[in-house]
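Hi P.,

Sorry for the delay on this. The queue was packed all week, but I finally got your sequence through. Input first:
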Amino acid sequence: MAVTSAGILLYRVAPDGEVSALVAHLGGPFWAAKDDGAWSIPKGEYDPDAESALDAAKREFHEELGVPAPDGDYAELGTFTYSSGKRVTVFVCDGAAFAASDPPLVFGEFEMEWPPRSGRTRSFPEVDRVEWMTLDAARPRLVAGQRPALDRLAELLAAAG
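Then the structure:
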């Protein structure tokens, strides 16, 4: 069965009409020196039989960034399938009032054996930083399976005028 995830894509529109998205750089030693393809929207796995996709997206936002998902009107942007078969349902919300530093973000952590085959377990942040990026700047940086979400967001905002 395919892995199911849900996430939140916050966006903001500048006075000149340029759209930015809040994206997070993946944490841990594998991603440390990478930029392109090493960013993600805040998201995570969930069990659709036990939790709604939106509830899971808000929970994962809080777990990864250490702050609650902002209040607002969330809309389901769509479900996007990675080449691996993983499916990610993405929700969008206007994040213009969301400051990525107030309160300070406290990133969730995961444990893994590091260095490999050392027998030692270390903790690493799930993400190590977040940034507002224009959609054009974010596109090559996002993991490939999430890039269509940026295109869908741009289409919806353009249609809305």
